[in-house]
Amino acid sequence: MAAASGRTRMPSPPQRPTRQHPAAATAALHPRNRHQGRYDLDRLVAVHPPLRAHLVRTPGGGQSIDFSDPVAVRELNRALLASDYGIAHWTLPDGYLCPPVPGRADYLHGLADLLAADNQGAIPRGPAVRVLDIGVGANCIYPLLGHAEYGWRFVGSDIEPAALQCAGANVRANGLEQAIELRRQHARGSLFAGVVQPQDRFHLTLCNPPFHASAKEAAQGSQRKLRNLGGDTAAPRGRPPPLNFGGQASELWCTGGEASFLRRMIRESAAVQAQVLWFSSLVAKREHLADIHRQLARAGVAEVREVPMAQGSKQSRFVAWTFHAAAQRMGWQAG
Question: For every residue of 180-242, which 3-state class applies, written as one string?
Answer without folding.
Answer: EEEEECCCCCCCCCCCCCCCCCEEEEEECCCCECCHHHHHHHHHHHHHHHCCCCCCCCCCCCC
